Amino acid sequence: MAEMPVVITLVAILCISGVAGQKCYVCKDQDENTGKCATTVESCDFGEDYCLSEIKWGSTPYWQIGAPMQHFISKRCATKEDCVQTIKKYMPNCLRIWWKDWTCAECCKGDRCNYYITLGSSSQNSNMMLILVAGMLTALLPRIT
Fold first, then answer.
1. Burial of 94 (0-12, 13-18, 19+ CB in 10 A)
2. In the prediction, which pLDDT does 63 show?
3. What pLDDT digit, counting tens, does each position of 28-70 carry?
4. Residue-wise DSSP of the chain
5. What is the mean pLDDT of residues 107-135?
6. What stretch or stretches form a coiled coil here (predicted)?
7. Residue 50: which of 16, 73, 20, 84 has the closest Cα?
8. For all residues of the chain together, what is the average pLDDT?
């Protein structure tokens, strides 16, 4: 029974960490994934459990013949529905052909997971708090029973 306060404390820590919400890098139409896109972090609103990144390749917004092609990067917090709709909207045009305008989008889940623009490369995200709690529970449960 002496271990019961430890278990209650661990559950409280999990609840508090869940309430704190996640954070995402945020920026709009930046030409590089540095500067604002790599330093500005925002706490997401309730229900925004994902970080959404969009990358566009094309000429400047005021289109003109011979305008230079460049990247435009945007990052923000998003809901799952936001992610699904945005990816569905852009993926048919996610061609990555240098002479054509294109747009791609990706979502990830976890604090500041959108630091890099990976565009579909596999990545593994782990929640250190979850790993810590699981390890502690594994160590404590044999003693409790």
1. middle
2. 64
3. 999 999 999 999 999 999 999 999 999 999 887 666 677 788 8
4. -TTHHHHHHHHHHHHHHHHH--EEE-EEEESSSSTHHHH-EEEPPTT--EEEEEEEEEE-SS--TTPPEEEEEEEEEE-HHHHHHHHHHHGGG----TTS-EEEEEEE-STTTTSS--TT-------HHHHHHHHHHHHHHHHH-
5. 68
6. none
7. 84
8. 80
Written as one letter, the residue type at 130 is: L
Distance (Å, whole) CA 87 – CA 79: 12
Contacts of 21 (CB under 8 A, 6+ apart): 43, 44, 45, 46, 48
- Within 10 angstroms of residue 118's Cβ, the number of other Cβ atoms is 13
**22-125 CATH pick, 3.40.50.11890, 2.30.110.10, 2.10.60.10, 3.40.50.2300:** 2.10.60.10
